Amino acid sequence: MRRFYVQNFGCRATQADGAALEGLLRQRGLDPAGDPAGADVVIINTCTVTAAADEDARKAIHRVHRENPSARIVVTGCYAQRAPEELARVPGVAWVVGNTHKAQIAGLLDTLDAPAEYHGQVLVGDIHQEVLFLSAPVEDAAGDRTRPNLKIQDGCNNPCSFCIIPAVRGPSRSMPEEEVLRQVRALASRYAEIVLTGVNLGRWGRERGFAPGRRLHHLLRRILEETEVRRLRISSV
Q1: pLDDT 10s digits, 49-107
Q2: CA angle 10, 204, 12 (to 5 degrees)
Q3: How far is CA 38 from CA 53, 58, 76, in A?
């Protein structure tokens, strides 16, 4: 049975994405490895908010390839969305998968059985065309964390000149209210505390398709009144 390792860089939203990827890979029959050296597939889930973040991701790729040259490396996340061709040229990278296709990574496993020469494939779409909230359920706390991160919002509509986030995360999109409640109930049965996270969490529910006037505080009230969660933590709003 193949083993995988997910290494996350960056914000809580990225951590939540990584936890969701772990769940999808387990569903495909893979077992988690304790470190990259023991993995057949290593997923580098990147951040790109600074040049230093990009450098950290490249160093991680080089380290994995040096210490475990037989591992198939998949690079995803915000750096992969911004500069896929740049990452595809890094030695050892089998796939570069943008945020637009992150939920499809588990389905790429069959291609990772190709010969070692199979290198630098790119799967990236137009993030600005994203209108649905796409995220796999977070089934467990990531790594050694005792508080699972539940991403309920993604993207940002603010065109700040200094920030790359809208270009790599796309427009603001929210998890439907009933789905949030369903996932909170499932997690609350196993964890005393849950962290709600997002890229611009205060924008939850404001896009077209949600009930007029629904805001984050309405959702929080429903969670506290209708679920058994004991402690609810909110990441940066």
Answers
A1: 999 999 999 999 999 999 999 999 999 999 999 999 999 999 999 999 999 999 899 88
A2: 15
A3: 25, 20, 20
The two three-digit tokens of residue 122, written as one number? 């790119």
Low-confidence ranges of the chain (pLDDT < 50): none
Contact criterion met (CB below 8 Å) for 49 and 10: yes
Q: How many CA atoms lie within 13 A of 34 on its CB side?
A: 0
Strand order in the sheet with 173-174: 173-174, 149-154, 193-198, 231-234
CA distances from 224 to 3, 127, 183, 228 (A): 38, 33, 13, 8
pLDDT for the residue 164: 94
- Token match 């450098």: residue? 55
pLDDT computed for residue 82 by the predictor: 97
Question: How many other CB atoms are found less than 10 A from the CB of residue 148?
Answer: 24
- Domains (ranges, CATH) in the chain? 3-128 (3.40.50.12160), 130-234 (3.30.750.210)
pLDDT of residue 144: 55
